[in-house]
Amino acid sequence: MFLKGRDLLSIHDLGVDEVEELLDFAAELKTMCKMDATPHLLKGKTLGMIFEKSSTRTRVSFEVGMFQLGGSALFLSNRDLQLGRGEPIKDTARVLSRYLDGIMIRTFGHDRLVEFAKYADIPIINGLSDLLHPCQVLTDLLTIREFKGKRFKDLKMAYVGDGNNMANSYLYGAAKVGMALTVATPQNHKPNDEVFKNALADAEKTGAQLQWTEDPIAAVKDADVIATDTWASMGQEAEHDERKKIFAPYQVNEELLSHAHKSAIVMHCLPAYRGEEITDEVFERNADVIFEEAENRLHVQKAIMAATMR
Questions:
Q1: Catalytic residues, which ones?
Q2: Model-level pTM?
């Protein structure tokens, strides 16, 4: 298998062909799932799931995905591990490598993932960090293919909101598939500079046009796909009221969408706070896309687990 034994911490670490292979594999597994014929590619394998951040979709999709692939998943919160009491990451990584076949981690600092991967002898999957959310953006690429076709190079995408882990990962994802992407954020909430630099280097190989702007209307002009995310990520709850004021001009609403392509779809990784980053009307009109996007987490993560852990 093309990713056998490797970590998946960032889309930037994948080759252009590997991204396409992973999306094809996920689509195949989705078809098999609908036929109740998912192959037990991970029979006898066990995935450890370390959660330092809470989750709905990440936990359920990884756990169900392992079950469908014939393996098992072990939920591990900070309260369940000595990590929560100060055991060094490198010690935990080396111990768990002797018990498990792979580990998914959902955490705060990306450096924790990098250190874990350095000392582990088994594949490490980034279930989310403050810097990147690769599983979600690979999922969104699959969803875009389903609703807009496989020719990413013919599409224009806009991301509107906070320059967070989703914005960073969209830059990496768009660069790998050659899709035009404009990210619109306030000046003081831009995507990570190093991520943007790396993404531009990737884009040189695929022809992807990557841009940042402070103007959400300019970003969505003639866009085929528009994505947004919550304005206050986990750990930023105390900033919620201040962020609502800062990001108010970036709400995905009818007025903003009037500047996009008439057939544009709107995506949201969930949870959505209706009336803040997206209006209820826009959300409900795009609910079929958004909840297909949510389901696709299951199929993309099955592909990631099977590709890395077989």
A1: 106, 133, 136, 229, 269, 297
A2: 0.97
